[in-house]
Amino acid sequence: MTDGLTVLGSCGAWPEPHRACSGFLVERDGFRVVLDLGYGTLPRLLDALGPQGVDALDGVVVTHHHPDHAVDLHGLFRAWTYPRRSWERLAVWAPPQVRDAVIALEDGDAAAVDAAFDFTPLPAGPTAAGPFVLESVALPHFVPSVGVRLSSPGLVVAYTGDTGPSPALAELGRDADLFVVEATDREQRPTTPPARKPGLQLTSTEAGRAARSAAARRLLLTHFWPGNDRERSRANAQAEYGGEVLLADEGLRIDLP
Fold first, then answer.
1. Domains of the chain, each with CATH number or no CATH
2. Closest CA to 256 of 153, 148, 161, 162
3. d(C-alpha 63, C-alpha 146), whole Å
4. pLDDT over 90 at 176, yes or no
5. Which pLDDT score, from 0 to 100, does residue 209 have?
6. Contact status, residue 232 vs residue 207, Cβ threshold 8 Å
């Protein structure tokens, strides 16, 4: 298997039919780490991992505790825990609220969750994650949320999670081979209520600006509001960004250098 990123889910808020919410599987030198596990991503992750199932997974990064990014982490907890007779913990990097959310879904059983998952709270300084150096930065959102950057020799993948416009995005995606950026575009749907607070999610236009300011080599738009015109989002981003603009689509695999 070549190094690459597989899109598990591309929707924001809730999944459209035949789609899922935020989730990406990154593979490098035989190491497999998933970025976010929103609604509907776990079955797609298990399919991508193949016959070994969860045993083929080396770690999880979750950007924040909103369910469209984190709820299937609880399903992964059960898939990781129940078939096992001995406890081997899976590495999970996430803001502390993500751990709290999984514990709440497991009827408050913190001991069981901590026996299965080895949580490292984010944001944090650079840390090793297999062949990668994992870096994280706090970004503006409705709840504590981080952007993450995975670096290894010859490869940088950066992912915003959910965020509003921020100067930190330029450094997060600096010279990334692939910059995965939220492009919610709530305003495309006239019946969608306005956000509780403005400026805490990105439009596709702002996503293009972020990729341009980061000098990223490729831009992957994601977190589309259900029902949006994704080609319209691509065009908006392309108008601000000079490089290749890709659209997240369930099952899409992107080869990485």
1. 4-255 (3.60.15.10)
2. 153
3. 5
4. yes
5. 98
6. no
